[in-house]
Protein 1
Amino acid sequence: MSKVKIGIVGSRFQADCIAASVRAMPEEAEVIAVASPTSGNADAFAQRHGIPKSYSDYREMLRDPAIEMVSITAPNRLHARITIDAARAGKHVICEKPLCITLEEADAMIDACAEAGVLLLYAEELFFAPKYVKAKQMADEGAFGRIHLVKQSEKHSGPHSDWFWDVEQSGGGALMDLGCHGIAFCWWFLGKPAVRSVYAQLSTQVHAARTAGDDEAITIIEFDNGAVGMVENSWNRPGGMDDSIEVFGASGQTYADMLMGNALPTYSEVGFGYAVEKAASTKGWTYPVFEEHWNYGFPQEMRHFARCVRGKERPISDGETGRVVQEVLYAAYASAGLGRKITLPFRPRGIAKPIDLWKKPEMAEAAL
Ligand SMILES: NC(=O)c1ccc[n+]([C@@H]2O[C@H](COP(=O)([O-])OP(=O)(O)OC[C@H]3O[C@@H](n4cnc5c(N)ncnc54)[C@H](O)[C@@H]3O)[C@@H](O)[C@H]2O)c1
């Protein structure tokens, strides 16, 4: 069967990751086009990755009949519009995290893809990270007995692009940006049980001058099977990206540090080119990673999605996954606003962005 032909929307951070990841496992897919509003950027990206076509308007790219699947790496506020446009053009969609800004958008995205008969694939790469997959395999085998606590933490020194800091464009702060990974991870790891309740503690500890968003977040999720998920996120951790899990059961536990745990403990007085995402310096003690994309699971994720398009595999992360995460994000922001646990289902309508439920607790109260 021919390779699945992908068009990428966006040409910066995550777009680079997707293009490199498809190249790393090239048997199932190839990137044949990129669209990004600044045409010079799209052209430069195409040249950098050896991609034949570049566009400055993604809608023009969607008219290309050769493209079967679109990978959306644009800012969060554009995910819904681009997904719906792509679905109507008959393209399968891979949407980066978080799925969107509002629950209404999540519904509209899922409906548009269902109506068009295309797949909506939610790009949660932690489901493919080799260390985390190994932890889940052991858990599913019964290695830890009944699991009662799963922890996931993702922390770094703050996002690279301005729009993340602007809650009008991002929908929220560190919880929205990084917590979406941990929420999805705990849910997936435990076998996708229903969420019973959510409690969150949010604050802006360091970056109040730059953002109205939360830069510290702790979220506790209670699942229907009685297990608990705990998600910790920060935009205040200098020294490079930190991503780790802990799993506790009646008969055992496991710990995995995705990046530092796979790195070379290194000391250099002069520094060197690159250590890990978001590390500001390579002088002194650092933890340079190798095979960074592979350790996250990005190439494996793209391979899986391409195989889903060809009917060789069933999606393990889809629009429904993104919607589950979105509802927990709503509940977490509402919990922080009200200072109490929120029970699910929690699907308030008419909320412009999740963080409003924290900043305006009366909106959260009205939704209960
Ligand atoms: N899975 C992950 O771990 C991960 C990592 C980083 C980012 N992301 C997600 O990927 C998305 C993009 O993040 P990023 O870090 O690449 O941001 P970025 O700021 O580096 O890049 C955003 C890109 O979107 C493009 N863009 C802006 N408006 C557009 C429009 N109207 N049409 C088409 N393209 C447009 C910009 O030109 C730019 O190329 C976000 O949703 C983010 O949360 C996911």
Protein 2
Amino acid sequence: MRVGKPARRAPSDEDRAELPLVNDGDLDLTFIGSGGAFSKRFFQNNILVVKGSTHLLVDCGSRTPEALSLLGLSVGMIRNYLITHTHADHIGGLEEVMLVNRYSFKRKTTMIITDKLRKALWSMSLRGGAAFNEEHKGASLEFADFWDSLVPTRVRGGERELSETRLGELDILLFRTKHIPDSAPDWRSSFPSYGLILDRRILFTSDTRFDPEMVLGLDKAYRLEAIFHDCQFFKGGVHASLDELATLPVRIRRKTWLMHYGDKVEDFSAKIAKLEFAGLAEQWKTYSFKRIDN
Ligand SMILES: [Zn+2]
Ligand SMILES: [Zn+2]
């Protein structure tokens, strides 16, 4: 059965003791953080997805290990990661993930990532902190010494670069977004950054500038149940602004939760309600979508 709106659940003391990594088969998205890159109130906009016995952390920012710890989790307990792009609020916690798993648990961890992004992530960001801690087979360490890559398969055809993969019970589509630089006219000319669609039901933009063709095109193709869209409270920069998102049709706004926002949410909450957005996605809340039995 499809549901129009997700049920929200505030974390109880029990959840805080240990946020579960398994559930009864619903599609659960929990915001480990919901804030923008420099937020001091809401941690960083990374989500934990759980469905049945499958779990996946989407992005792992510099403050995410701390946020996980407050929920009773640790980076060592997370076995599957998906990385959307290389800003520190999405990857800054990965060095801890790599070192803890290699030296404490002596194992690799799974990362869902495209070839294009993996090369940039390793050579431009992770290599400096991870490659030179030991000599391995007479050389420095490589990405594959820390990670088992799950590389999505490109879906041919269509306007926008799209790839798909499956992790346990979870179906994942990755599409390119228009995030950086701020001058790039479209996703093609942007540095690799990705949004995702979970189970062909839920859109999570991660970081993108306003791109109505993307939202409307994906909504048309997948008849989305809910959209989680990044939102900044000013114009310019590299995210969709509230004023730009306000121009989306009301049928879209009503199922759109705003995320990756700045600390001054109280100044904008009345405007967000007036525009009939679904609301602000809240840190540590679980957005649950009922399982569909075919
Ligand atoms: Zn970000
Ligand atoms: Zn970003």
